[in-house]
Amino acid sequence: QKEVEQDPGPLSVPEGAIVSLNCTYSNSAFQYFMWYRQYSRKGPELLMYTYSSGNKEDGRFTAQVDKSSKYISLFIRDSQPSDSATYLCAMSEGSGNTGKLIFGQGTTLQVKP
Amino acid sequence: DAEITQSPRHKITETGRQVTLACHQTWNHNNMFWYRQDLGHGLRLIHYSYGVQDTNKGEVSDGYSVSRSNTEDLPLTLESAASSQTSVYFCAFTGRGRNQPQHFGDGTRLSIL
């Protein structure tokens, strides 16, 4: 069993929909949680970065962490065709600048106009 | 803004050859990382470095080596390339300060025939 599980999709939604992306994990020592967006043939781009449990909002994006359930989510409101990409969750035990990241497989999202 | 440059962007080589992938960052950050990305596996850590003369093995280090002679560069070497090492390789660094997340280059697509 992988330490981090993420449904690879693909997930297809109409423009304007609310998108929910999720990851589960097994290592209770994970403290730092990240979401990256990756466009085709590009490197992962950091979207959200949270520490421990709780919610964090940035524009149309909201990240949620539930450490008791070992479950993290990324919500995208009013989805746009430009949101079409692969979304990767990542997490680490140590602080983000020294901790080794464990990634999910990535979920491919397509937002149709 | 700090930048990270990977070269070459694409490379084709033959099994048994030695291959070196370059990673250069412009802001003298200490922490640098190498990952490979394969379908079904997400990104997996190969090697990482916390400073000059410091190198550490990651999850999938067999067949790879790194050296850190200055702060700006962390080259990744495949000593004797194998077809199983066909992948997309990403270099990452963390910024200054506590709890900084990792930022990625745009990758090198390596094919070993």
Supply the key terms.
heterodimer; A: 113 residues; mainly beta; six-stranded mixed sheet; five-stranded antiparallel sheet; 0% helix; B: 113 residues; seven-stranded mixed sheet; four-stranded antiparallel sheet; 11 strands; globular
List the SSEs and their pairings.
The complex is a heterodimer of chains A (113) and B (113).
Chain A: E1 4-6, E2 11-14, E3 19-25, E4 32-38, E5 45-51, E6 54-58, E7 61-66, E8 71-76, E9 85-92, E10 102-103, E11 107-112
Parallel strand pairs in A: 2-11
Antiparallel strand pairs in A: 1-3, 3-8, 4-5, 4-9, 6-7, 7-8, 9-10, 9-11
Chain B: E1 4-7, E2 10-13, E3 19-25, E4 32-38, E5 42-51, E6 54-57, E7 64-66, E8 76-78, E9 87-94, E10 102-104, E11 108-112
Parallel strand pairs in B: 2-11
Antiparallel strand pairs in B: 1-3, 3-8, 4-5, 4-9, 5-6, 7-8, 9-10, 9-11
Concise synopsis of the structure shown:
The complex is a heterodimer of chains A (113) and B (113). With 113 residues, chain A is mostly beta strands.
Protein model, in words:
The complex is a heterodimer of chains A (113) and B (113). Chain A is mainly beta. Chain A is built from no helices and 11 strands. Chain A has strands at 4-6, 11-14, 19-25, 32-38, 45-51, 54-58, 61-66, 71-76, 85-92, 102-103, 107-112. In chain A, strands 2, 4, 5, 9, 10 and 11 form a 6-stranded mixed beta sheet that branches. Chain A has a 5-stranded antiparallel beta sheet with strand order 1-3-8-7-6, with no helix packed on it. Chain A is globular and about 40 Å long. In chain A, 37% of the residues are buried. In chain B, the strands form 2 sheets. In chain B, strands 2, 4, 5, 6, 9, 10 and 11 form a 7-stranded mixed beta sheet that branches. In chain B, strands 1-3-8-7 form a 4-stranded antiparallel beta sheet, with no helix packed on it. Chain B has strands at residues 4-7, 10-13, 19-25, 32-38, 42-51, 54-57, 64-66, 76-78, 87-94, 102-104, 108-112. Chain B is 0% helix and 51% strand. Chain B starts with a strand and ends with a strand. The interface between A and B is medium-sized, with 26 and 28 residues.
